[in-house]
Amino acid sequence: MSGSLMGTALSGLRAAQIGLNTTSNNIANVNTQGYNRQIAGLSEAKGTNAGGLFAGSGVSVTGVQRQYEQYLSTQLNDANSELGASTSHLAQISQIDNLLADGDAGLNKQMQSFFAGMQTLANNPADTSARQAMLGNAESMTAQFRATDSYLKNMSNNTVAQMGGMVDEINSYSKQIATLNVQITQTQAKTGTPPNDMLDQRDLAVAKLSELTAVSVVNQDGQYTVSLSSGQALVAGKQVQSLQMMPSEDDPTHQVVALKASDGNLFELDESKMTGGALGGLVQFRSQSLEPTQLRLDQMAHALTTRLNDLQTGGVDLDNNVGKALFTTSTPGVVPSKGNSSDAIPTVVFAGSTTTTSDQGVEAKGIDEISKVSASNYKLTVTSNGPVLTRLSDNQAVEASAAGLVIGDTSSFSAGDTFIIKPLENAAAQMSVSKDMTPEGVAARGSQSEGVRGNSNALAMANAQSENLINGSTSLNTAYASLVSDVGNKTATLKSSNAAQTQISQELKSAQQSVSGVNIDEEAANMLKYQQLYSASAQMIRASSEMFDALIGIMR
């Protein structure tokens, strides 16, 4: 009987020890990131038949169980992925919003000063000081265009650098998960019990990965398969496929995220499907906010310089000569695909221009259709039936003439060759007042018959700010105001959605912590409970020992 009592007491003592160890471990890890609270699993030990009585035989410790809820953790990871995307997008677009909305030093003020100076010149066409002031305003305006373009280009370079850093982090977490997959399987096979610390480490790696990019996780036989939102697997058991930055196949000047398969081949990822995590936020910022802003800035620079040059070269200057170009202008850029049959490029010019991008000369005489040049790049595909031009802003096939372009002969190129056409490339970056322009060289007169006080051409140049030069329906003033408004509205929308997503993540974190988090008060209560169990079990052991000693004494 005392032996049975001793065994029961010892089982209680063991349960108390394991419970105290578990509680102590919980308290020690209260601030450990990724730690999931543990509890000692206890169950009633199998009873025994003693003299016709079925008596209990103590308590069994079934294991130390991790308090982990897969559903809640998945929801939290998904929410944090969305939060990471909106946070990184918002952080970047806010910089553009601040840049464009600066009324004191921004581009809008410089354009207004330039056109105001042109109006003053029109009012005093023979006044060389008015002419000099207008050119000074033109210098300030073009410098602001270049500075704005430089700022946006630096943002683009920094965005690519940040993307590269995040790709490295993603690869690191993927390797951790694959390594832990192997270690968890091996440890569980040896011990027969799940290694809670390794499980925590793996789930933490998944959580960190989710903050960088949206992923889905499948648990198969204790091993995680982690896939991108676009479907490609990053981790499958012990196998890892890494990400890498690479030049785009279509546009080698454009860095994109690619998946490096186990055989070493690189596959460019579809950016439209990269919507989650901080990396997805940067990708979406670049494609949906930064690049459209750059294109619209270049569109305004192109429209302004081209229209003013058209008017300037159609007028007469103070020395009775035909006017020369007021501004320098850029030419369309053409980038061949990496997979083309040769490095040759087709000639592309603006309609009404004789400027070419290669030595394969093409003339396209006529009125320069400024308003047809939209804020978009294009993809030119050579086919057996001729070239096909696709506008990348909406993936619509268009005629070159509708885009304000003339494309040279493509018959010498191979079917399947593709090119990215960038009509507005460097329009703002190369915008400047012509080096040989002088105050006397400003063509204020519309014709020689007007005399030195003629101002019809200067009036036309001053009025160019209100002409519908953008997309055939929008003036320069309205186009800039629309750009500022669009960026501001998108920033405000992102702020609102980011605040809402932050609230969602916090609520899910609270729900997850209610299951998996360590509560010091609760652990203190558990510690007291196990201390009492330990003390009571020890007393039972003492009582059992005394009973056994008494029995031995009687037998003597």
UniProtKB/TrEMBL annotation:
Arranged from A to Z, the UniProt key words for this protein are: Bacterial flagellum, Cell projection, Cilium, Flagellum, Secreted
Q: Which residues belong to any copy of the Flagellar basal body rod protein N-terminal domain? A: 8-35
GO MF, one example: structural molecule activity
Q: What region holds the Flagellar basal-body/hook protein C-terminal domain?
A: 515-552
**Residue ranges constituting the Flagellar hook-associated protein FlgK helical domain according to the UniProt record:** 93-327
Give the chief site where it resides: other
Entry-linked SUPFAM superfamilies: Phase 1 flagellin (SSF64518)
**Does the record bear Cytoplasm in its keywords?**
no
Give the UniProt entry's GO cellular component terms: bacterial-type flagellum hook; extracellular region
Q: Which InterPro entries match?
A: Flag_bb_rod_N, Flg_bb/hook_C_dom, FlgK, FlgK_helical
- Which GO BP annotation is one of this protein's? bacterial-type flagellum assembly
Q: Where in the cell is it found?
A: Bacterial flagellum; Secreted
- Tell me which family the UniProt entry assigns to this protein: Belongs to the flagella basal body rod proteins family.
Q: What is this protein called?
A: Flagellar hook-associated protein 1
Q: Which gene encodes it?
A: flgK
